[in-house]
Specification:
Blueprint lengths: L5 H11 L2 H24 L1 H4 L1 H26 L25 H6 L5
Length: about 110
């Protein structure tokens, strides 16, 4: 059996797949991002508020991107349920757009 790493498989699948196939991979990523957001929220007491706010904000940006990418590939509309997470950050403020570089330049650690 030929072993290929995940890094090898994803580009191969994306290059020859249809929009529906790509949508399926994006949906996997969307589910993982939502799950990770939940785990960070549950671990906020251990990791610290600044770490959790940063990571939930970054995941919120990933989720927003995937919510637009999946319908684009599949031809349907997806919506994010209202969040019960209360991590305040610039990315969650509707009138303020934060560049992704800012998330990566100032990464708080636990």
């Amino acid at each position: 059996m030929n072993y290929r790493s995940w890094e090898d498989q994803v580009p191969a699948e994306n290059s020859r797949g249809t929009g529906r196939d790509r949508a399926r991979f994006y949906e996997y990523g969307l589910g993982s991002a939502r799950e990770a957001r939940g785990w960070y929220y549950k671990g906020r007491h251990v990791l610290g508020e600044s770490v959790v706010e940063h990571r939930i904000s970054l995941l919120a940006e990933v989720i927003k991107l995937l919510l637009t990418m999946v319908p684009d590939q599949r031809g349907a509309v997806l919506k994010e349920d209202p969040l019960a997470y209360h991590a305040e950050s610039p990315a969650q403020t509707p009138d303020h757009v934060v560049a992704a570089e800012q998330f990566l330049d100032h990464v708080p650690l636990p």
